[in-house]
Specification:
Number of domains: 2
Oligomer: single chain
Strand order of the largest sheet: 6-2-1-7-8-10-9
Strand content: 15-25%
Mean pLDDT: 94
Bound molecules: S-adenosylmethionine
Distance between the termini: 50 Å
CATH topology of the largest domain: Rossmann fold
Low-confidence stretches: none
Helix content: 25-40%
Number of strands: 10
CATH class of the largest domain: Alpha Beta
């Protein structure tokens, strides 16, 4: 793969910003360069051709932006987090009339449907409003359909069992909950389909965390932003921790990825509660 000079990365980011309005200046350089190298290889272009074409070809620019973002996700990714949400976070909402939740950087929606399943199990589904956003419109289209490849189903099944059927506070308790309650499988056609009653619950919307403010103008009780900020530099991470603080309701909770944490000055604005961060007043 072609290695890219630092100056070309700067030019490339400038073109993406000036021609497309996408500001990648505070994305982690390592991850950005790795993605660009792959893009050049896949598109069979050198860096100069790509930069010059991007200035004229908006369709290509949109495609490149989608290829820069990493969309890896899973059903019940990191089950320990879901156990904490189930046993530590959600019970306090039983007495609240309405719950607002935002999945920021939702990718193809597996995190959204995992949460919906958990809400169903706890009897909180009806009173919860779910909002989900991503920069990439392709992943949002898949999220809305809730149709995935069956190939990784065994991995997901394992996550599902750990997240929903095991009580980490009482390992003797085993909950029986067939995944077929929430998903249909067609091994031959390589399809995993989320059941229709879970679709149309979440409002999906294109939204850029770097340049746009609160996408639905409500205060959220819970914000999920998992495995998104890991691709941003420290400056941008801190800016977003501030933005999320503004968007959270009183005592609201921010759920990050297991390799992400709030450091420095912003950590004073949140109380770390296990794997989650609660907004301080
Ligand atoms: C690795 S996925 C994480 C998906 C899910 N939250 C999870 O943890 O499984 C990161 C997502 O963040 C999105 N993303 C990256 N930059 C973004 C931005 N500036 N604004 C909104 N979404 C962004 C990507 O398109 C991608 O779908």
């Amino acid at each position: 793969m072609e290695t890219i000079a630092e100056q070309d990365i700067i030019t490339l980011k400038k073109v993406l910003r000036d021609s497309g309005g996408y500001d990648f200046s505070n994305y982690s350089t390592k991850s950005f360069v790795r993605r660009m190298e792959k893009i050049l290889y896949d598109y069979k272009m050198d860096i100069y051709t790509l930069i010059n074409t991007l200035k004229l070809d908006n369709e290509l620019l949109e495609r490149v932006v989608k290829d820069i973002t990493v969309n890896t996700t899973e059903i019940f990714r990191d089950p320990a987090v879901w156990q904490a949400i189930k046993y530590r976070l959600l019970p306090k909402y039983h007495s609240q009339k309405e719950i607002n939740v935002w999945h920021a950087g939702c990718s193809i929606g597996m995190e959204v449907y995992s949460f919906e399943i958990l809400l169903c199990e706890l009897g909180l589904f009806e009173k919860t409003n779910i909002y989900a956003t991503d920069l990439n419109t392709d992943v949002l289209a898949t999220a809305e359909k809730g149709v995935y490849s069956y190939r990784n189903a065994s991995e997901f099944l394992d996550n599902y069992t750990k997240a929903l059927c095991v009580n980490p506070f009482n390992y003797e308790e085993r909950i029986s909950l067939p995944i077929s309650k929430y998903m249909d499988f067609d091994e031959k056609k390589d399809l995993l389909k989320i059941k229709p009653f879970l679709l149309n619950k979440a409002k999906f919307k294109k939204h850029n965390l770097v340049s746009e403010s609160n996408p639905f103008n409500v205060k959220y009780d819970i914000i999920f932003c998992r495995n998104v900020l890991i691709y941003f530099d420290q400056y941008l991470q801190n800016k977003l921790y501030g933005d999320f603080w503004d968007c959270l309701a009183e005592n609201g909770t921010l759920v990050l990825g297991i390799h992400e944490s709030i450091l420095g000055a912003m950590s004073a604005k949140y109380e770390k509660k296990g794997l989650m961060y609660q907004k301080k007043g």
